[in-house]
Amino acid sequence: MNNLIEFFKKAFHIIVLAVLLILSIVMLGKSLSFNEYRLSRAVQSIVGPIQKSGAGMVHRFRLGPENEALVEQNIQLMRERENMFIEKVDTVMTAMSQPDSTNHKQVRLYDYTFAHVIFKTVDRAFNYMIVDKGSRDGIVRDMAVLSPEGVAGVITDVSPNFSTVRPILHPESRISAVVTPANQNGTVIWEGTDPRVAYLEAIPQHSEINIGDSVFTNGFSNIFPKGLFIGTVKSVQVGNNASFLTIKVNLATHYADVYTVYLVENLFKPEIDTLKAHFKDE
Amino acid sequence: MNNIISNILRFLVLLIVQIVICQHVCLFGYMTPALFLLALFLLPLELPLALQYLIGFATGFVVDAFAHTLGVATFSCTLMMFLRPFIIRFLNGTNFNRFENVERPLPGVKDFRWIFLYTLILTSIYQVVSVLLGTMTFKNFGHTMLVMIGNTALTVFVILCVEYIFYNKDKNVS
Question: Are A39 and A30 in contact (CB under 8 A)?
Fold first, then answer.
């Protein structure tokens, strides 16, 4: 009997080892077979919540690349939108560029790219933004600048690697706009210091404008494609000049938060500008 | 007492680092470091053998639970803990007594060659067993070998770095 106890004392660790190894082999076998998943489910119920919160944390660090991928995807989608093309015979461009085309031929008029804002001001009288793409990336003057929410501004100056944007928040900024559903064309200007509010000018007094009506670009300027969102009507007043309304517009773009912007190039702009120049000369 | 606390702390820290960071590392698509092995390497040798096996088992189980590979690290760790005294005996030559002259595989106590061999042998035992158990096949054995060697190399490198950064001669903790 004593011998037996001695033996157990000596071999105790070997027994423990054998038990543990067998246990782990059993666990391995159970986790491999699809029928016996009770054990892994029990473990999962404890580990799962911890891992989920951890995955959320890791996901935050990966948001940057994911955002870039989504921006690329957005551009792909926006390039296919209807207002990117011209196909009507009665526009200048179709007659010019495609003399022998049929009515339904689509010609790409606008193209998209994107950039990131690296500097901006919003609280001055003359605001501006700088984006991280320039002439080397194919940026040219007078490209339209859009934020994810809506219209943001126009490229005014281009260096090899950077460009300056004149946002709506600039006294010289003018954007041809149409207010729906009244369908009246006007011009969005900015005067003052509130980066959230602009004015819509040149809307005749007889038109029925309601608070909350949407303001879009009308595509007259050849900078902005047609139908881009600018903002919503905030208030309507009869102005000093009796023939026009004074309309305040809540801008869609939150300039304080703008980081990624989309740049729109009018591919036929030089051509149209030539036409305009001729018109001026005469 | 101080020794126990520092050991427990080391286990906690290394396990968390392993679960949160190391497990998600996939260098070149197949190299994953097993940093938590360091906690097992530095476990005091004078502990009862059965307790050492149990600690190895528990550590492996925690790692397994978070890696969804129940049994793999558990088995490998337990086996590694069983083989550890033999490796130390082999490295030290014949004059080895588990209860006297307790060895710590740390810079300052041992030279680089000893530590490197100790880490390399134990890590390769762990990686060979766990990779084989994880793949459960001898198909495409070339790739399996590559994974073993890659994992071992990366693990040894990371563990040696950690040892030489955190356990230098001046502050020889635990």
Answer: yes
